[in-house]
Every structure is written in C-alpha cells, then in structure tokens.
C-alpha cells in the first residue's frame, strides 16, 4: 500500500525524489507525530532506474532472500575463505585467503584510534569509507565467489522489537542464517580490543553451530595481521537490543545535516567509549559479541557486512530525502577524537589499500553513481 507520509513533507523532501517513494514500513498509517518522534515506520529507497544507473544491483534484507538464496549467499561467503590471498605479504603476512584480505584492509585502516592519529572510525568519512569498502567486497563476492545479487543487509531494528530471544533471530539461525552463539566462558572473557568491554555477553567462545562453526580466521585480533589462526567467537548480548530499536534509526533519519546524522548513528559529540557503545553502529556489532566487538577486526564476523549494509541503507535513505543538498553534504573530523582536526571534505581520500584505487570521497556520495562522477549503482529494498 502506497501511502504518502506527511513526514516527507515535514522534512522538506525535494521534488527530485517523488514523494510516493516514502512508504510506511508496516503499511499502517500512524500519525505524523508518532512517525517523527517515536519510530521509523517509514522507509525510503532510491527510485530506480535513475540516470546512468539503469540496472542497479538490488540489496535485499536477509529475511527477503529465499532459503535457496540464503544458502547461496553463505556458500559465497565461505568461498571467500577458500580463494588464495592476494594481499601484499609485507602488509598482511598472516592473510591466507580472500576473506583474510578484506579483514586485513579493515584491520590496517583502523590503526590510530586511541592515539588519535588516524583510522576509519569516529571520523567524518566513516560512512563513505565503509560504503566503498562494502561495494568492493560485494564485487569480490560476485566476481570471485559466484554471488549474483547485491549484498544483503540486516535490519536489526525489526529484531529489536520482535520480542524474540536473540537465538531466535533469523540471522542467527543455524540452517537459514549465520549460526548462533559460542559457549559461555567463565569467567566471562573480554574480547581483545573491545572498546570498552560491555557486560551481558551470553557466550564468548567459538561458534558451536551453523555454517561458520569451523570458520577459520588468520589475522587479528586487534591491530596484528601476523598469522594467528583461530575460530570465530560470539557472545550474543541482549543488553544491546535497547540501542537497536527503530527509534534510533528514526532519530538519525531526522537529522538536518550530515554531521548531525553521523553523530546520531556513529559518534556523538561527547564521544567516549561509553557513549559510542550505545550508538546503533557499535550496538549492531556488540549484539553479536565476541570478535565483532573488536572494532579493528570486527570484519572477522561475517555479519559485519550485513550490519554495515543496513547502516549504509539508512545513510542512503537519509540522503534520498533531500538529494540536492545531501549528496554533497559531508563533514566531521578527519582524525578520531579530535574535533579540531581538519574537516572531512568531498576531496578527502578514501584508502582501501590493495583492494581498490584511492578515490576522492565524492565518488561514493551517490549510490546511483550520478553525482560527482560516481560509479556505484545499487539500491536497497524497503
Ligand atoms: C502514537 O502511537 C501510540 C501507540 O501506537 C498511541 O498510543 C499514541 O496515541 C500515538 N500518538 C499520537 C500522537 O498519535
Ligand atoms: C573485562 O573488562 C572489565 C572492564 O574493563 C573488567 O572489569 C573485567 O575485569 C574484565 N574481565 C576480564 C576477564 O578480563
Ligand atoms: C566443523 O567441524 C566438526 C569437527 O570436524 C564437524 O563435526 C562439523 O560438521 C563441522 N561443521 C561445519 C559447519 O562444517
Ligand atoms: C548541523 O545540525 C546541528 C543540529 O541541528 C547544528 O547544531 C549544527 O550546527 C549543524 N552543522 C552544520 C555544519 O550545519
Ligand atoms: C579538490 O581537489 C581538486 C584537485 O586536487 C581541486 O581542484 C579542488 O579545488 C579541490 N576542492 C576542494 C573543495 O578542496
């Protein structure tokens, strides 16, 4: 059912995006006040086809994939850990396979957060960098491992209000998902480089069921890319669910400018370990726990990609509300925990090491690739 959301008018949607691209998620008509203040029963998508992006790759929510597609995706993901590494040995000596390569890029590029000297977190280019990184992983899955669609995303806000226990969340299903928890370790182990440690993990050990039971990680934890072969650890954490509710998404969607959007999703102005962990970005890692709480090698967790695809969906939906302004709106510090550092601009370089060219940030501002001489061409389902 297509309903015109009054929110779109309140938010001043420009004519570049037809207003009927705003759908209430549930199809239920709620009052604008409720939509604005307490939920995101609205969702936006980029209207395809648009400009030079006539055949966008479609990124679907995990639940929207058929069982066959889910199994194909998991097979492609596991395939990445069977293809030999292409990473330069001096940069990633421990990398043995293509999945390690991408993990190593994230590990190396995360360097410098506590020292405030660099890295891809708590900076203004966090969203564009991860958007670029995801597109390269999506390409690798497709060209090297047989995946034929866009990267799936995981809308955890649906789970957060489902009243299901974590082990019943579809992404943790051992047959049609990514498998569940590891066993509870006593005393509870703090994941290495978890920043900070959050109590409440119900597991912490090696994943015991599902397709990633014997997943082999060779790089990390933390900043090391030396060979360190180990299992995937998980500790599902129900305490984080409160920070994944749709209201959190709605708050970000209602931000008036990019720095405010970024602050509501990733890095609040009073950024401290305690405030960061309660943001939806961090909470979407901490809910899975274990290796996912290591902000440096969280890429070891296959759900990294689905979580970040959802964040990118929220970001692109926010942009789509006022494309004329928001496809060029960027800012925030270029160094973490350093509000005084030079502001990120459309010219800021995004570096993904050996996995792709260094590009100016502007090129990934538009997921339809039309603005700023871009090259991306995908859209998200609602
Ligand atoms: C918002 O939704 C709640 C629950 O659905 C309802 O009780 C409340 O009256 C609504 N508020 C407004 C302003 O419509
Ligand atoms: C985990 O970290 C917390 C907070 O820093 C600390 O109190 C606790 O002792 C740590 N536990 C272990 C097993 O290291
Ligand atoms: C993981 O290894 C164990 C022991 O070899 C085996 O029983 C199990 O089937 C394997 N699981 C998967 C998903 O490959
Ligand atoms: C962005 O919006 C916030 C909150 O409304 C405001 O405080 C800030 O000055 C704005 N920043 C820019 C760069 O416009
Ligand atoms: C971006 O870089 C280009 C080429 O280096 C330069 O011409 C342009 O002025 C820069 N723009 C901004 C906003 O810094």
From TrEMBL:
Tell me the keywords, alphabetical order: Copper, Metal-binding, Signal
Q: Which residues form a coiled coil?
A: none
Annotated SUPFAM superfamilies: Di-copper centre-containing domain
Q: Which Pfam family, giving just one, matches this sequence?
A: Tyrosinase
Which residues belong to any copy of the Tyrosinase copper-binding domain? 121-138
Check the record and name the PROSITE patterns matching this protein. Answer: TYROSINASE_1
Molecular function as annotated in GO? metal ion binding; oxidoreductase activity
Q: Which InterPro entries does the UniProt entry name for this protein?
A: Di-copper_centre_dom_sf, Tyrosinase/Hemocyanin, Tyrosinase_Cu-bd
Q: Does the keyword Signal apply?
A: yes
Q: Which domain of life is it from?
A: Eukaryota
User: This protein is called what?
Assistant: Similar to Tyrosinase acc. no. P55023
Q: Which species? A: Pyronema omphalodes (strain CBS 100304)
């Amino acid at each position: 059912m297509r309903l015109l959301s009054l929110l779109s008018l309140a938010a001043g949607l420009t004519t570049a995006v037809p207003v009927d691209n705003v759908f209430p998620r549930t199809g239920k008509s709620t009052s604008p006040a409720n939509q604005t203040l307490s939920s995101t029963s609205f969702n936006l998508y980029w209207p395809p086809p648009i400009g030079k992006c006539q055949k966008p790759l479609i990124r679907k929510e995990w639940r929207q994939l058929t069982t066959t597609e889910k199994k194909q995706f998991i097979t492609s993901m596991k395939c990445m850990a069977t293809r030999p590494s292409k990473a330069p040995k001096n940069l990633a000596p421990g990398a043995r396979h293509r999945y390690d390569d991408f993990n190593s890029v994230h590990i190396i590029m995360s360097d410098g957060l506590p020292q405030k000297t660099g890295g891809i977190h708590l900076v203004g280019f966090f969203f564009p960098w991860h958007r670029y990184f995801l597109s390269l992983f999506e390409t690798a899955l497709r060209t090297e491992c047989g995946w034929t669609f866009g990267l799936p995303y995981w809308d955890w806000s649906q789970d957060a209000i489902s009243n299901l226990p974590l082990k019943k969340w579809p992404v943790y299903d051992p047959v049609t998902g990514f498998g569940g928890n590891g066993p509870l370790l006593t005393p509870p182990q703090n994941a290495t480089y978890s920043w900070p440690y959050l109590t409440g993990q119900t597991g912490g050990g090696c994943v015991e069921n599902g397709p990633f039971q014997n997943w082999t990680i060779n790089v990390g934890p933390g900043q090391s890319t030396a060979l360190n072969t180990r299992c995937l650890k998980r500790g599902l954490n129900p305490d984080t669910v409160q920070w994944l509710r749709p209201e959190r998404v709605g708050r970000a969607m209602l931000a008036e400018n990019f720095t405010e959007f970024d602050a509501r999703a990733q890095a609040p102005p009073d950024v401290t370990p305690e405030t960061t962990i309660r943001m939806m970005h961090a909470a979407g890692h901490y809910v899975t726990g274990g290796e996912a709480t290591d902000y440096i090698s969280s890429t070891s967790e296959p759900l990294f990609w689905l979580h970040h695809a959802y964040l990118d969906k929220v970001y692109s939906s926010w942009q789509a509300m006022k494309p004329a302004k928001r496809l060029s709106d960027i800012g925030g510090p270029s160094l973490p925990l350093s509000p005084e550092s030079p502001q990120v601009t459309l010219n800021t370089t995004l570096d993904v090491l050996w996995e792709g060219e260094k590009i100016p940030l502007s090129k990934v501002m538009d997921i339809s690739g039309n603005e700023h001489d871009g090259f991306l061409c995908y859209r998200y389902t609602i």
